[in-house]
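Whether sequence alone determines local backbone shape is best considered at the level of individual chains. When preparing material for the folding task, we compiled for one chain both its residues and its backbone structure tokens. The sequence in question and its structure tokens are set out directly beneath this paragraph.
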Amino acid sequence: MKKTLLLLLFPFLSLAQNGVVKSVTLDSVMITAVKDGFSVEEFIHYVKTDTTFYQGFKNLRYYNHDYHSDLKLLKKSGEVLGSLFRSGKYSIINEQLVVHIDSTFDHGKIFNRKGKYRHYTPEFFDEIFFPKDTITVTRNARIGEKKIEDENEQNEEDAKTIVFSIGSGDVEAGNSKNKKKLAVFDIDMQQYYDYIISQEIFQDSIECYSFTVRMKEGLKEKEEEHLLIKELVSYFDKETFNVMYRKYEMSYRYWLIDLDVSVEIYMDYADAELVPSYIHYNGFWDIPFAKIEYADFKLWNYNFKP
């Protein structure tokens, strides 16, 4: 009763007693929900331990489906340097996945004279979404189980961990300092973030809980150096608690590394299973011993079949 009264009087809930999050901002709808029994502590625990989002991406490799993609490499001014369009399908037979490219069109500076990519960004997305080799698919694979052979593969595994495991510090991001920048729920990091729970309607049809982690306004430049994730938004289906939408805003400037990236992912259902229907990446990275790369990548997945 005391906790309910506190929530009704103030849109903040103290969670210091269990070491999860010191304060969470609730909108008026969620304040009423708490009065009716909604547990903020349990919700945040679920957010931190959610596996539905990762399972949704794994389902891409379990379902036959069509896709088309649009990749643009950009100059700093926004002018298109090169573009690559693809369409095809994922085919799974006897637990073997083959990604077919039925049509492709490129323009500008995508490939060199030897037919190799001029930039790393297309290679990165190829490894994740358009593997050249046949892949054995299993529902038992987990993040981090794959043996890492080189730095690029480590980068790909790190990207998956960042996207799938919300606020995780389990990333080989160069050093322990960078790992901590990703752990948005750590006690030491909470001073830099606002945590917000509200209610949203996803695509005009699905009632969702919205959970936002957002960098506080008015931080000093030195304080912002502690952060890699500027904003993280997730929509959870109220009925199933599946993640229906996720957005990341990441920015990092330290010594020789400079990046600014936005990622949006829309989920949908295929035969009652969660799948990513639309993915949008936009941003740049500038790292030592490589050219700065600006890119915009979009991927649509549809016509899912068992």
